[in-house]
Amino acid sequence: MLDKLIDLERGKANRELKEYREILDSFEQRHQMPSKLFYERFQHGELGDDADFFEWSAMYDIFLI
Fold it and tell me: HSE on the CB side for 45, CA within 13 Å?
């Protein structure tokens, strides 16, 4: 029983991770920049305060957890 619950949670986590990766890929394509580089530049105030950048930053924070 416990193994089944663990498998269900693992499956859910994998689906969520895939969804976050797809969203990050979309941002990367739209802005022609990998998320890691974007995040570093955004954290240093180099990219401005576009709402899209705040969403991307939040999504990357979640992805890193």
Answer: 0
Whole-structure pTM value: 0.84
Number of Cα atoms under 13 Å in the Cβ half of residue 49: 0
Would the CA dihedral through 7, 10, 14, 20 be positive or negative?
positive
Q: At what angle do helices 35-43 and 51-64 cross, to 10 degrees?
A: 110
- One-letter amino acid at 10 equals R
Over residues 18-31, mean pLDDT: 96
Q: Which of 16, 34, 17 is nearest to 25 (CA)?
A: 34
Rounded mean pLDDT, 27-47: 97
